[in-house]
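User: Sequence in, structure out. Go.
Assistant: Echoing your sequence, followed by the structure tokens.
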Amino acid sequence: MQTEIQIKQAFEFLNAKGISNADTGIVLGTGLHNLVNLVEVIKIIPYADIPHFPISTVEFHKGNLIYGKVNEKKIVIMQGRMHIYEGYSFQQIVFPIRVLKSLGIKNLLLSNAAGGINKNFKKGDLVLINDHINLQIGYSSVDNNIDAASVLFTKKTDRYNKEISIELMKKAKELNIECKKGIYAAVSGPNLETSAEYRCLHIMGADMVGMSTVPEVLIANQIKLPCAAVSVITDECDPDNLKPVNIADIIKVAGEADMKLSALLYETIKVLP
């Protein structure tokens, strides 16, 4: 299949650059980059240089693949991701995750910036995603190039790996970092929600809302790659008290919370298999 050929070509390019036998893959969301400063960076490769790799067009998504180490564990960091609202298909969005799997990763850690619907969530909070609501309607939620019907057509209660999630919460406690839990609603974007839409999401059971992550979780499950995800709450979505969104404020909040998130991811990577 063409996608398999493309993955092979991307793998061969990265392998020739010395990137192989990685242990953990990490996807960093909007304004979340500090983890790079904590790891031993071996190589930085722009997405544009990698065969068939989509290019992140969104500001504050730097678009680099970073190969490095945490202690002796080899990691591959995606410094920025792709979104449906950029015009990419599901297959294009998840292509990098499949490439990371080809590089050997055994675990996937995801992060994002999200709007807090749960009124107990405040700006700067870290929230472990324990389930999601996929509202990215009109886009395939599977990669048809993979024969995995047993995964696709069964009820799933563990899309977010329990063992990795337990380790994240354990490390948060050790670091004295408060990490809440919640349900993430994925919408297509790029427009933010109306007051009525926030109320609807709340009734549906969503604690937070964003425009990413779920495609990556779906493909991770499809290719049997254990994953977990953490959101940083960058704005509070009270439908009765909505305020204009200032992207500079969102990035500022993400940057401040990123110190906590990066420490949490760093310590968790150390204990993952």
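User: And one key feature?
Assistant: The mean pLDDT is 91.
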